[in-house]
Automatic annotation (TrEMBL):
<dbReference type="GO" id="GO:0006352">
    <property type="term" value="P:DNA-templated transcription initiation"/>
</dbReference>
<dbReference type="InterPro" id="IPR014284">
    <property type="entry name" value="RNA_pol_sigma-70_dom"/>
</dbReference>
<dbReference type="InterPro" id="IPR032710">
    <property type="entry name" value="NTF2-like_dom_sf"/>
</dbReference>
<feature type="domain" description="RNA polymerase sigma-70 region 2">
    <location>
        <begin position="11"/>
        <end position="67"/>
    </location>
</feature>
<dbReference type="GO" id="GO:0003677">
    <property type="term" value="F:DNA binding"/>
</dbReference>
<dbReference type="InterPro" id="IPR052704">
    <property type="entry name" value="ECF_Sigma-70_Domain"/>
</dbReference>
<dbReference type="InterPro" id="IPR013324">
    <property type="entry name" value="RNA_pol_sigma_r3/r4-like"/>
</dbReference>
<dbReference type="Pfam" id="PF08281">
    <property type="entry name" value="Sigma70_r4_2"/>
</dbReference>
<comment type="subunit">
    <text>Interacts transiently with the RNA polymerase catalytic core formed by RpoA, RpoB, RpoC and RpoZ (2 alpha, 1 beta, 1 beta' and 1 omega subunit) to form the RNA polymerase holoenzyme that can initiate transcription.</text>
</comment>
<feature type="domain" description="RNA polymerase sigma factor 70 region 4 type 2">
    <location>
        <begin position="103"/>
        <end position="153"/>
    </location>
</feature>
<dbReference type="GO" id="GO:0016987">
    <property type="term" value="F:sigma factor activity"/>
</dbReference>
<protein>
    <submittedName>
        <fullName>Sigma-70 family RNA polymerase sigma factor</fullName>
    </submittedName>
</protein>
<dbReference type="InterPro" id="IPR007627">
    <property type="entry name" value="RNA_pol_sigma70_r2"/>
</dbReference>
<dbReference type="InterPro" id="IPR036388">
    <property type="entry name" value="WH-like_DNA-bd_sf"/>
</dbReference>
<dbReference type="InterPro" id="IPR013249">
    <property type="entry name" value="RNA_pol_sigma70_r4_t2"/>
</dbReference>
<dbReference type="InterPro" id="IPR013325">
    <property type="entry name" value="RNA_pol_sigma_r2"/>
</dbReference>
<dbReference type="Pfam" id="PF04542">
    <property type="entry name" value="Sigma70_r2"/>
</dbReference>
Amino acid sequence: MQADPFGPSRGRLLGLAYRMLGSRSEAEDVLQDAWLRFNAVREVDNRDALLTTIVTRLCLDRLKSARVRREAYVGPWLPEPVADTQALAPDAATELADDLSFALLLTLERLKPAERAAFLLHDVFDMPFTQVAATLGRSEPACRQLAARARKAVQAGGPMARPPVEAHQRLLAAYGMAVTSGDVAALTALFHEDAVLLADGGGKVLAARNAITGADRIARFFIGTVRKYGSDMPPLRIELAKINGIPAIVVRAGEDIDQMLQLAIRDDRIETVYVVRNPDKLGWLGPGDPPEGFKIA
């Protein structure tokens, strides 16, 4: 078996690329390109620093074309969900080191690319600003300002504390019971009044093409969809898994993954529902293994 050319640095580099791009597939492509560029350098003083610089700049290049692709994307765009978060670990003890939530990734998506890079390198990967400046080819004060603007946006996105597994367990169970029973009132009661549903089908499968806002509208959409299309659906199998580090539902039709559903929770009610149905984004979910102590009764 051939040794991994990145060695122990793979997780950190892959995690950086994934957080920059919101796509595990693209992150893997970036690492392949980075290795080719790294091998073309004859003299290397600091291997890890050079690899980090190459990966960061390749991501920044990709983000230029990504903006155009996002504008042409059909419906809401969501990150590519991943089950194996250990493969993306930053090897740092920062507050956001383990946070791969859709909420954070979507906040990063709204930042300017340079802000995203400066924030990730310093606040998540614990890189000193002197090295951030060298990586981005900017002055240290400029990098501090970029990271500060990004940090302000992330903090404005809401509390960073992750709700306990039990809260997800209870709400996912209640969600499933309400949808299958067709109980609009019970389902509506699970949401904040201003809750949002984001469904990513990429124009390739059936999904809401616009964000749906409001508890009642979301509840009626879910139950209406089941009533309208339920008889035409193949037998579905529900699996529980930790996706991006948070409990979620993975729905399979036969051996194929049909969708991933995850909840963002605030004050014991659902604030946001994320549904990924685009088949191009479901390849990194793997088998559904329930988190420890996690079940739906």
